[in-house]
Amino acid sequence: MSQTSYSAVSGIQHEEALLFEHAHEAAKSISLPGVEGDISPELQAFSRQEAAQIPGLSEPETVRHFVRMSQWNHSIETGFYPLGSCTMKYNPRVNEQVVRLPGLADIHPDQPIDSVQGVLELLYELQTWLCELAGFSDITLQPAAGAQGEITGLMMIRACLDARGEQHRKKVLVPDSAHGTNPASAALCGMHCVALKSRPDGRIDLDELKKHLDGDVAALMMTNPNTAGAFESDIKEICQLVHDAGGLVYGDGANLNALVGVARPGDMGIDCLHINVHKTFSTPHGGGGPGAGPVVVNEILAPYLPVPRIVKEGDVYRIETHDEQSCGTVLGSLGQVGVLLRAHAYIAAFGRNHLHKIAQDAVLNANYVLHRLKGAYHVPFEGLCKHECLLTDEYQNKHGVKTLDIAKQLIDLGFHPMTIYFPLIVHGAMLIEPTETESKTTLDSFCDAMLDIAAQCEAGDTQVLHDAPVKPFRRRLDETQAARKPVLVWQK
Amino acid sequence: MSIPANLKYTKEHEWVRIEGDTATFGVSDHAQEALGDIVFVELPEIGRTVDAGEAYAVVESIKAVSDVYAPVSGEIIEVNEALEAAPEKVNTEPYGAGWITKVKMSGNADELMSDDEYNTFLEE
Q1: pTM of this structure
Q2: Cβ within 8 Å of residue A488, ≥6 positions away
Q3: What ipTM, to 2 d.p.?
């Protein structure tokens, strides 16, 4: 096996009990104050009858507990993290510096509006930028993540169709390559889904689409580029067909990193789109922090945007909290302000003339990985990919090795595995999204590791792959038992 | 890969056992192998009528959630409630204790594949 500079080795890692198992009465790091005065009669019924279960721990014990557990993790700060469809790009430290400025960090949603004009100006500016980048006329910053963006978009579509007197339109078309959140959001919104079978090249099949377009269609939900990393080249015709049938097109913006600064979903005919700013515009996410899923809309859906909204009157920003046509409120206050401000910092750091380099480098990196691996791994869909490339374990299956084994071996080699077994339309899928923030050296190191694994299969040296991972603190977890008999609550 | 000779198969990897006008449905050995460890089976309601090709149950594995399609049309008369507590039977005995539902047939099974045809289909 070739030497890789990123290979994982064993280090000092501590076993760690749950906080309650650590607890001992001798150390209480907090002492709660008693109640001063009388409890009002209305609240009497709610007063606690038994002592709160707070583990007895000193401050250093508490800190060590969390730091120790954090050391079991792989993060974008510890190594390459090519998790497909997740855009695990590096989170620049300057973003963190910006959001810790006192004028942004030490404010409260309910303080007087004239004392928070600065943050409102930044958020308003971000709204303008996101609309321009995606090609839409209006926006809500409220949704807390992509999936909430989806349901917000569908709520607006619902409100729009209802206003047209088309309450009966409840059918949502979803390609079979879609993210699982798409049908879930449609179901939550009281609609039902019909899956569109993809073409042999992984794209939307126009004939299949036409077959399902009728007077009951509310919307098509689609991702472009799709989850196979392929650009939907018929996008304009797809949108036209849906519009002609009286439906609207919802765009899942999960893969915007492939397009940002180069192409605009609004220009393609999409009616609304959520933007995972935590992916495209670099904020810690995926167990490492909260997301934000602003939704951009065209003129058709703009009247139904959620409230509250930031509006600008002259040089003054204010917050509009009521609108008759609005689809409602989806999150308290103005959304995940900290995440949104980091996105603002990221966009500002690139500037108008350089944002397209994000997409260009992301697409270049994915195609570089695809090009290096395509002889050793089966490529289900030919041609160039966008920001992520899709491989399968077909060649390795002949040697009894599956995608899961390859993923586990990557952990031993110091890499976070790619997304596995998704999209569902190919067997044994491996979806690799390197992002634009990785150097050629890092990409080569990952590709070398993947090629070594393929060579091990060919050589019949497969036991090590079935045993992997052997280096991390926890080895193969029993995912089946975890799903069949989950233990979710600590019990004494 | 086990493909019993007395069953009929679909391209979606379901099997059906026909006895008189009763048909028993399940998923094939190939299907359970591809799905991986099954952790949950959502069973249909008794009395519901299903058309051939219609999704009648949902199988959740550690990899994915998949619809299961009816090989023939009919009315659901029995479901395998044992799968609620032991969904792994679909993995261990796909053609036996891992059956999913029984229907009173209203259609025919003429368009389904024989074991030989299914074997050829899998090899392609």
Answers
A1: 0.88
A2: none
A3: 0.71
